Amino acid sequence: MISIPVSFLLAALFLGLLLSVVFWRGLPVIARLCFALLLALLVLETVFVGLRFAFGIFSFLPLQRVLPVWIAPLAFLSFLSLTQALERLRKSFLFHGVIASVAAMLVLFPQEARVLPDVVIALSFTAYAVLLARHWLRGPDELSQIPVQLTGRWHRIEAVVLATMIATLIVDGGIAVLFAHSEERAAAWLVSLATLGLITTVAAVLMWVNLGAKGGLRAAARPALNGGNEKIVQKAHGVLVEQELFRDTGLTATRLARRVGVPDRELSRAINAGKGQSVSQFVNHLRVEEAARLLTTTDAPATQVMEKAGFLTRSNFYREFQKRYGMPPGDYRKKMQAAD
Fold it and tell me: Does the keyword Transcription regulation apply (predicted)?
């Protein structure tokens, strides 16, 4: 049967992960907050499970049942925060927060047969496992809010989290069946085995995350120390062009700096020294060049060209184009067609 030291050991490992993530500066602030909250809930959940199965303390049973419906969406939102900027995350946080709140009310709803909580938790984990799987299948490049050198590591961590969610679904299903047949002792043993497996997994991830945090910080500092301004500018240009990042209308200097692997100020200083431009001017220069190419090689209207090139507003597009080519986009297209 499960013992309280084993449960507390797992809680301690989750706490170690929590502290590692909080102090990992390579992650955006919003991502650190999401992962910290997720791990804090996991710490509580493991403690409550231990108290229930080791000491027969059922005082925290309502909390133990309601926490999983928050854990699943938080796992998904944590990795989503590595993909999108905070401005785009607000609607996702609101939507999934409402879903989790409704699920929590269903779990806590008074009833004689405690079947509904198991069904709600199973549906929650299934739905968010599917969402996380879809997110993972997009590849490491989807994790655009962190430095490039960290995307592979966090993509693999996402795979571990996904596998853990699927395993949790299977184990919880087995526990529910055992309880339905009054096999409490067998259920306790299954919880023990699952806990031991989770301890091994979390310990491995904890070591991996700590090594990645140190390596990520070193890698992030390397371009600034060894490469100088020219290498930073070249890398920024390569990231923008090869990954077509300039097309993203929500691109920020902070996000570009993370992709390059240098601090915001270092990127801004390097571009200013090497090109005499701000980061936004540097990006807009590529956007204008792409807009000129599209105007010359396609019949797409100016508004469509503007969107494909990465401009958010018509006024900004026309202003930057006029500055670069000395004429509006329509006149430029006519001039190039006449030349042909």
Answer: yes
CB 309 within 8 A of CB 317: yes
Cα–Cα dist 43/18, whole Å: 9
Sign of the dihedral defined by the CA atoms of residues 51, 56, 61, 65, in that order: positive
- With a CB cutoff of 8 Å and minimum separation 6, the contacts of 39 are 14, 15, 17, 18, 21
Backbone angles phi, psi at 84, to 5 degrees: -125, 150
Element (H, E) at 320: helix 314-325
Cα–Cα distance list, 172 to 63, 98, 123 (Å): 17, 24, 12
Q: How confident is the model at residue 146 (pLDDT cuts 50, 70, 90)?
A: confident
Measured torsion, CA atoms of residues 153, 155, 156, 158, in degrees rounded to the nearest 10? 130
Query: Per residue in 96-145, pLDDT tens?
Result: 999 999 999 998 887 665 677 888 988 999 999 999 999 999 888 778 77
Indicate whether 127 and 202 sit together in one domain. Answer: yes
d(CA 33, CA 18): 10
244: left (phi over 0), alpha (psi -120 to 50) or beta: left
Q: Which residue has the tokens 């969406």?
A: 73
Residues 145, 251: Cα–Cα separation, whole Å = 10
Residue tagged 């700590």 (tokens) = 210
Token pair for residue 235? 């890398």
Amino acid of residue 310: G
Tell me the CATH number at 46. Answer: 1.20.1070
Judge whether 48 lies within some domain.
Answer: yes
The token duo for 49 is 């499970």
Question: How many Å is the Cα radius of gyration of the chain?
Answer: 25
User: Which domain, by its residues, includes 154?
Assistant: 4-220
Residues in the chain: 340
10 Å Cβ neighbour count for 226?
A: 8
